[in-house]
Amino acid sequence: TVSRALAGHQQIALKTRERVAQAARQAGYVPNTAARTLVSGRSGFVGLVLPIRGPNLVDSFLVEFITGLGEGLVAHGADLILATAAQDQAELAVLRHVVESGRADGVVITRIAEVDERLAYLRRRGFPFVAHGRLLDSDFAYNWLDTDGAHAFGEAFDMLYDLGHRHFGLVTISEPMTFRHLRQDGLAAAIARRGDPSVRLDVATAPRFDRGARIQAVNRMLQAPNRPTAVIA
Known about the structure:
The protein has three domains: 1-30, no CATH class; 40-145, Response regulator (Rossmann fold); 149-232, Rossmann fold, CATH 3.40.50.2300. The protein is 45% helix and 18% strand. It has helices at residues 2-6, 14-27, 33-40, 60-75, 91-100, 117-125, 149-162, 178-194, 211-222; strands at 45-51, 79-85, 106-110, 129-132, 143-145, 167-173, 200-206, 230-232. It is elongated, with a radius of gyration of 24 Å. The termini are far apart.
């Protein structure tokens, strides 16, 4: 009865479940993950693969994303498991290992590429996933969340244009990530809406995880004889 109460079975009265849960908390009881997996067939973990591309494990935005994801999962009785893909490892191979080993009940996919083999694999496998980002074009439905980069970059241009700027610089990544295209499309649409032939746009690209290359790309742009008066990044 105790195990069924802790598992939240509806056959056990609510008051009984609450008393058992309170007693378990007071005793410092934590369910054994291995035993729970054997009974339910679920691990209680959600996986996230982190590609390592330099001395810094993750960028500042992803730190906040992982923190929020972990807190949300804990609030729903699950945990986050991180798997790292070293620079010489294919991220798909690491993801495949997480899925096929049964270590996770689902996965979160970040940094969506124009042609993303990870999503194609998960779709074929029928494995639950949520994408942070989205494909530019897809013939299947899937769960995703994303920031509106197109709107943000268009709004940034409008604000700077209204301040009098006409020569703009865009700093972007060189990798074929979909968010890059969405942002540039939003910026291009905002420029087109103005219909101003005097608007000029210079673009600097560099690998996302190469801080030195990004600094050099921006420096080249800003050290040019006719440099932009405003930069969007």
